[in-house]
Amino acid sequence: MIFFIKFVCSSFSAMTNDNFLNPKIIEDFLKPDIKQSIPCIQVFSEVGSTNDIMINERTLYPNGHTCFAEKQNHGRGVGGKKWIAVENGIYLSTSWTFEENINSLPVLNQILGINLITTLIAYGFDGLSIQWPNDIVYSQKKLGGILIESKFTADKEMYVVVGIGINLTLSDKNKKTIDRKSTSLYEVNNNVTLDNNKLCARTLESIIHSLQSFENHNYKNIVKEWKNYDPTFNKNIQIHYNGEDIEIVNKGIDLDGSLIGEYNNSSKTFKYNEAKIIKK
To answer: What is the mean pLDDT of residues 31-56?
Structure first.
């Protein structure tokens, strides 16, 4: 049985009147095997950050507890960088606990990204790709992102929160405010009829599937799959590293999720907290 909570924190909603997020409807769309892994679904009309709620405030269950929000005011990206949430998007965070420290946690970014893209493609949104380490893009424009945060519990287990944001539509105001080229599911394919609750369910399924399979995943297969979804593979890209902008040839990812690049006629790996791709 799933525990449902609907919090109405303000009169604002990013959804149309017939498309409000409803925890019971989201649950109804979930596949039976996934339902068993989700003890609680919360829906907020407005929050600061869904990840903050799962990390600091209202975590009821260590595995599968999920929080959705229709509006997010203080989202963030990797390294605490501000995430500018659009008026019409999907924002969710899910908790999971591993019994020991996971040194390869950055690889979870890649697993989540691949599973999320395949989910959205199945929904009717073709042509999506991944930009290292955690962006979902379309035609070099950002569609969504993934943020993984973790902390240790009193029992020395690793408590992980996976946050995902996806743009449903973009207003002219959003396009002027966001500091890089961005897009939305509507712009990817406006012929798809979006049921926000169904899309939330499918997104949640991709997260749970990723978390369940993570520890036993074949990392070599992830490295191979990544190349199929990264359009800049084997191409020149610019990254910011050690305080300067450099150009490398993108050679994919390593087994620990690091970016591999050819630089100065040699191969070098760049960890996600050491380098970032310069967005155009």
So the answer is: 91
